[in-house]
Specification:
The chain has helices spanning 2-18, 99-102, 104-115, 164-176; strands spanning 28-32, 35-41, 47-52, 57-62, 67-70, 77-81, 88-95, 119-125, 128-135, 138-147, 150-159, 178-179. By secondary structure, the protein is an alpha+beta fold. It has a seven-stranded antiparallel β-sheet, sandwiched between helices. The protein is globular, with a radius of gyration of 20 Å.
Length: 182
């Protein structure tokens, strides 16, 4: 009986360690043409966190986006790709100079008009809008949020045949897009 109990405890001990929560990944430093950006390790499996201090927003970045395509010197945002270049992740911010020209509704209308028949879904609600379009075998998911005098946007481009698991990551990123500290 004691032997079985000891074996059971040993199995539970080993099983407990092998299934414990994974350690938060180390921060990832990215560089592009002399500019750098940090993706911070998170407790959310499969994601890093991008913080934009200039426009005060944050967003979860799927870990597959490991290559910096553009990191501008003005800290507007970041453009990342996966190793194949087939997937693209853009997070950026800007100033709303004139509500009639680049306010949320004007940006939404302009985006939908520009994309035309490629638009598959669009929604303007409250302080944000989303647009999903399909062109040349690639989907583009866009979400823009307005916060007073500034806005921030997420744009993810991916192949039409992307796995459903990636589409779930898009939703997680979109839901995470928010004003820093909120």
């Amino acid at each position: 009986m004691k032997k079985h109990l000891a074996t059971l405890l040993l199995v539970l001990f080993i099983f407990g360690f092998s299934n414990s929560a994974a350690a938060k990944p180390a921060d990832r430093e990215l560089a592009w043409e002399g500019n750098t950006a940090t993706l911070f390790g998170t407790d959310t499996p499969g994601f890093y966190l991008y913080l934009n201090a200039r426009f005060g927003f944050s967003v979860l970045v799927p870990e597959m986006f490991d290559t910096a395509a553009v990191i501008p010197d003005n800290s507007d945002g970041i453009i990342l790709t996966d190793a194949s270049g087939e997937y693209r992740f853009t997070a950026s911010g800007g100033n709303i100079v004139d509500e009639e020209i680049n306010g949320l509704k004007a940006s939404f209308d302009s985006t939908v008009s520009y994309l035309g028949d490629a638009v598959k879904e669009s929604n303007l609600s409250g302080d944000s809008f989303t647009v999903v379009s399909l062109a040349d075998g690639k989907y583009t998911f866009q979400k823009t949020v307005a916060t007073g005098a500034t806005f921030y946007s997420l744009e993810i481009t991916y192949p039409e045949n992307a796995p459903d698991s990636f589409k779930a990551q898009i939703l997680s990123s979109a839901e995470s897009l928010k004003k820093s500290g909120s």
